Amino acid sequence: MATRTRRLVVGLDRLVHSLTQRSASLTMSGPFDIDLSPPTAELLEIAKNELRETPEVRAAAIEELRKLLKASDLSFPDDDEFLLIYLRPTKFYPESALKLMRNVAEFNKTYKDLLHNLMPADAKAVFVEHGLINIFTNRDQSGRRMMVVHMGELWNTKQVTEDQIFRALYTIQKLAVLEAATQINGVVVIYDFKGMGMGHVGAMSTSGAKRLLTFIQEACPLRMKAVHFVNEPMIFNMVWKLFKPFVKEKLNKRMFFHGEKMAKLHEHIHKEYLPSNYGGTLPALNYGGKEWYPAAEKHIEFIKKWNTCGFK
Fold first, then answer.
1. What's the pLDDT band for 21 if we cut at 50, 70, 90?
2. Are 255 and 229 within 8 A, CB to CB?
């Protein structure tokens, strides 16, 4: 009897160890993986101070948002984790979260031809073949995700349209919302215009500018903490004229223009967190969208789930 008991205990220990290892493998991240780890105590403290998030507020807001969603004309997944994606950027006000959901549904409807059932493979070329978008493997001093979008010499306008670039940006958003740290700390985007010419200016449109800014300001459930423009040539003024009419006051206060003066960028992102490409002390970037793309393929099921969002 004692031997059978020992075997049972050993068997249970092995099962627990196996499940623990499996759970760890699902949350542990390599440099190019999506970080699925739960928020740390430090992150939860930030969420409490900046987003009003406490266990009690979180539970009540999730319950209320689920009720509001059920009574609405919207069709969104309503599990706790999915609702948190919308509650965190709206500081746990359920009505505001529902409004954000409606904005997303409206945006998806307006740009259905571009976004309906959008899968990572549809944007693969932008990442793998052209490397126009790169997510840094490290975060900044405030724990924010950082991304650089190349809108100059790396952009072959004959091969990649502004629509394709937007589809890639939209795909990145779907992955970023999976990260609790990114939900809480937010994101920072650097637009690099190095080598921009008239061909690039001609490849941009007023409609594309409006779409991008509507997305960022109204239909993206991420905290956009800052947008930095670097290496802008003189002709950038022509591009800015496309965008400026659609920039609202809140975002305008978070937009910064640095030209080639990286010291100005360092006032916002400390140089210890930037690669030498941008005057930082970290090694020059030796990776890009090609290395990041496989992470998207790992989360196809979530992306399919996201693609169901809209109206009933």
1. very low
2. yes
User: What stretch of H or E contains 145?
Assistant: strand 145-150
Strands (E), 248-307: 255-259
Whether the CB-CB separation of 300 and 94 falls below 8 Å is answered with: no
Q: Is the pLDDT of residue 57 over 80?
A: yes
* Interhelix angle 206-218/236-243, nearest 10 degrees: 60
Do 171 and 146 form a contact (C-beta atoms < 8 A)? no
**Are residues 142 and 187 in contact, defined by beta-carbon separation less than 8 angstroms?**
no
Tokens 């004309």 found at? 73
Task: Return d(Cα 48, Cα 57) in angstroms, integer.
Answer: 10
Q: What is the pLDDT of residues 103-155, one digit of tens each?
A: 999 999 999 999 999 999 999 999 999 999 999 999 999 999 999 999 999 99
**Amino acid present at 5:** T
Q: Which residues pair with 227 in a beta bridge?
A: 189, 255
Q: Which amino acid is at 302?
A: F
**With contact defined as beta carbons under 8 Å apart, do 148 and 134 qualify?**
yes
